[in-house]
Write a structure and sequence with these properties.
Blueprint (H helix, E strand, L loop, with lengths): L28 H7 L18 H13 L5 H24 L5 H17 L3 H12 L13 H18 L11 H12 L6 H30 L3 H17 L3 H10 L2 H4 L1 H16 L8
């Protein structure tokens, strides 16, 4: 059964502890604790920030692009990288909703600083999204084991709790990754189940932004609030830019049958359609 969608746009310990060096092997816990207490006139030490292992991240991405297949050890390393990134950005991502411009700008600056240290987070998240959709080895990815799948689901849930509309760059598939899949589809190349999983996740993330806007539009129309409708039109334009590959993603989902999607993706697509139906969205609305 093809999936038809409307065109909408009209815990883990994240801080690595340093191992004791030979010179400090004889220190007791009490001595170390005493050493950490600031003396009068001294500033308290800055909290230790985890150092990213970008070498591992580069190796995983290279394997994804060139082979050999990425395995569950790689997934565990990618998850650790993403978990640390989230721990360092979560408060600032939430602060992006602040009406206080100075707080918003400070949060945005802090996130950019973390992104400089963790430049591969978005790419690793895309790999994890594709792997989570698999139930067999394909496209240079093996299926996730239960432990890694549980960690990934917890990671996605954490992003959801912060507010998905502020995390598309980190938790949802990017326009770039979906654009590559759309290009494959338009060229007549065979899409993998991982490709379909990425497309479904992309549309699902878009729905999390579109559905609240759709409800606002309905309310404004009922109240004949033209000023409100104008401001919502501006929001819709921004969403169109944010999800610039939406038309291609919908075309892919529309043309796919259950055999092409794979069992896991069929279930994901059903949940997506149910989400839309519960919001009152139908083909005739757009």
């Amino acid at each position: 059964m093809a999936v038809v969608l409307p065109a909408i746009f009209t815990s883990c310990d994240l801080i690595n502890k340093k191992s004791d060096n030979a010179g400090g092997a004889g220190k007791s816990e009490q001595t170390e604790a005493a050493d950490s207490i600031a003396k009068p006139g001294e500033d308290l030490p800055e909290p230790e920030i985890p150092v990213p292992d970008n070498t591992k991240a580069e190796r995983i991405i290279a394997k994804f692009n060139q082979g050999p297949a990425i395995n569950n050890i790689d997934y565990a390393d990618a998850l650790e990288y993403a978990e640390i990134y989230l721990s360092l950005t979560a408060d600032n991502v939430a602060a992006l909703t602040s009406d206080d411009k100075s707080k918003h700008d400070a949060a945005e600056s802090a996130i950019k600083d973390v992104e400089k240290e963790y430049p591969y987070n978005a790419e690793l998240i895309q790999i994890l999204y594709q792997a989570a959709a698999l139930d067999k080895t394909e496209g240079g990815l093996v299926p996730m084991n239960d432990d890694n799948r549980a960690r990934f689901e917890a990671l996605v849930l954490s992003y959801d709790q912060i507010g998905k509309k502020f995390t598309s760059c980190s938790s949802g598939p990017s326009n770039e990754s979906v654009g590559k899949i759309v290009e494959k589809y338009q060229n007549g190349d065979q899409l993998t189940e991982a490709d379909y999983g990425t497309v479904i996740d992309y549309v699902d993330a878009a729905m999390d932004d579109v559905i609240p806007l759709y409800k606002e539009v309905q309310e404004a129309q009922e109240n004949s609030d033209m000023d409100k409708l104008k401001s919502l039109q501006d929001k819709a334009m921004k969403l169109q830019e944010k999800y610039s590959k939406m038309d291609g993603a919908i075309a892919i989902m529309d043309s796919a049958d259950d055999a092409e999607l794979g069992e896991a993706n069929v279930e994901k697509s059903k949940k997506l359609i149910e989400k839309m139906q519960n919001a009152g969205i139908s083909m005739g609305d757009f």
